[in-house]
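Hey, quick one: can you model this chain's 3D structure?
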Amino acid sequence: MKHTGSCHCKAISFEFDGPEIDSGLRCNCSICVRKGAVMTPFIVSPDKMKINNKQGLLGHYEFNSGVARHYFCRGCGIYPFHQTRRKKDHYRINIGCLEDVDSLSLPYEVFDGASL
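Sure thing. Here's the predicted structure for all 116 residues.
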């Protein structure tokens, strides 16, 4: 199934192939708690992800081990996706940035990222 999404100002848009989204995942690590995002419960491989960075506004932030990359739009500040620590170069997507998916109505599990 093809999913499409963007940041708030649409400078960063993306699409990926993945299963239907009927649940989400939240993480209790220090950055995810502060973001408050509901992410895809599955990861997306780099070959399934297409990112359009129209205005060169895609920034990223790394901390701790420096493996996970948390991406954000330098224009509007929205976090659309990140590359995971456990599976380098693979993505989890902020469901709130996806077209036609209501992230607020989905059940979610909590991942214990604080223990990594």
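One thing worth noting: The CA atoms of residues 3 and 55 lie 22 Å apart.
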